[in-house]
Amino acid sequence: MTNRHGLLLASAALLLTPAFAEPVVKKEIRVENGKNVEYMWIDGIKVHETDPEKQPQPEVVTPPAYDPAAAKPPEGATVLFDGTQASMEKNWESVKKDAKPWNLVDGAMESVKRAGYIRTKDEFGSCRLYLEFATPSTVKGEGQGRGNSGVFLMGRYEVQILDSYENTTYPDGQCGAIYGRAVPKVNASRPPGEWQSYDITFHRPIFDDEGNVTRRARFTVIHNGVKIHDDVELWGGTGWRGPHSISEYEAHGDTGPISLQDHGNPVRFRNIWIQPIED
Ligand code: MG
Fold first, then answer.
1. CATH number, residue 239
2. How far is the CA of 237 from the centre of ligand 1 (A)?
3. How far is the CA of 149 from the centre of ligand 1 (A)?
4. I need a labelling partner for 86 at 20 to 30 A (CA). Which of 69, 171, 182, 237 fits?
5. Contact 279, 126 (CB under 8 A)
6. How many angstroms separate the alpha carbon of residue 189 from the centre of ligand 1?
7. How much distance in Å is there from the Cα of 159 to the middle of ligand 1?
8. Residue 2 belongs to some domain of the structure
9. Whole-structure pTM over 0.85, yes or no?
10. Per-residue confidence (pLDDT) for residue 2, from 0 to 100
11. CB 47, CB 246: distance < 8 Å
């Protein structure tokens, strides 16, 4: 039975429970080896926390078998890479001036150490992006040093690419993480050298004239057929700002390129297509 008192309590509870609770961010500057180092905690968890007691590792799952049908661009999609030199040259350019180009190996674009990032010549805002990647079959390095690359929406919001198959790192930087901001629900990685897929639905952030974010970016990510982010809202940027700190939003335009990272490990890409979606 509802009385007036009960209704008042219910309305008060609604007012106190926003749809998306704003995270509590704490920052601290520590002096280490004579240098100021910024530390950030989001809802009490340090950025790039490695202690599994404080930030558990996502459960490891075996993804379904590779699905060649998922790689087929739907009607209206723009193919950004079809395995040919012509498509690589038509759609992609180096971010650095006078950089070495990435390699074309067996129909895949492969990052080249010190060649720097590549990006699309065209720019996009809210979109669905599909791509496939393979980390090196010869396992070298560990943690962030093994099969590291990344795909950046609007040239700035990174979905991490890493060899996270039996390779532990901080959960907010493992394969499938929205770097420094969102841990994947599960670890659906395939072994090194095998083709893996990302099917990303991205809603761009919107800024007002003063540069404040008025609508935050959102990501849904399907990794190897497994949903690892479900409409996750980004409360800031994904740029590395120190070992335990991550960038804030900085106002930018309505579109930006898709970029792929050279992090010193030869990571391959193929079957890349994109489809603009409604904001
Ligand atoms: Mg990366």
1. 2.60.120.560
2. 14
3. 4
4. 69
5. yes
6. 15
7. 8
8. no
9. yes
10. 45
11. yes
